[in-house]
Amino acid sequence: MANKGPAYGMSRDVQSKIEKKYDDELENRLVEWIVAQCGAAVGRPERGRLGFQVWLKNGIVLSRLVNSLYPDGSKPVKIPDTPPTMVFKQMEQIAQFLKAAEDYGVVKTDVFQTVDLFEAKDMAAVQRTLMALGSLAVTKNDGNYHGDPNWFMKKAQEHKREFTESQLKEGKNVIGLQMGSNKGASQSGMSYGRPRQIIS
């Protein structure tokens, strides 16, 4: 977006570490999922980090992806008829996707920043967000997920337990194992050495 010269020193080291986190195999899996989820109309990117970034940059593919996870009546992101060409409109489209992803259930720490995608600052963060979105879609299992469920790990789900009043009262009488146990303990057989000798 802004004209920036080449990075040197520590800035360059940091940027190269961020770029090394990008996973090419994960890119292939994400592309397959997005195409299966949205249909062949979204096309396919050129292989590699830059091709993936250019494919997602205007926000349209991302918006179609998140909309496809909702039932037909409720699409959270408005998609323009023609892809936006103005920079602020493209960034706005990405921001709408990010808000919809959070509303869907993606944790804020898993959501990338708009510049991470738009300026290709951290494409690994974009992959993390898409992975989190896919995992949620598989976990929800509401019929809106398309593709191989093995592409993503299911998120752990809450297993709430209900206890009756009598069970809660019983628990008050039990000494927890953290406190130790004195069952079976006695002083038989214990010796403390010889008694004190008084010599006169």
TrEMBL record:
InterPro entries: Calponin-like, Calponin_repeat, CH_dom, CH_dom_sf, SM22_calponin
Residue ranges, annotated region (Disordered): 178-200
UniProt biased composition (Polar residues): 179-190
One Pfam family from the record: Calponin
All copies of domain Calponin-homology (CH), residue ranges: 24-137
Claim: S-adenosyl-L-methionine is one of the keywords in the record: no
Record keywords, A-Z: Acetylation, Cytoplasm, Muscle protein
Localisation: Cytoplasm
Cellular-component GO terms for this entry: cytoplasm
Endoplasmic reticulum in keyword set: no
Main localisation: cytoplasm
Family: Belongs to the calponin family.
Name of this chain's protein: Transgelin
Originating organism: Ceyx cyanopectus
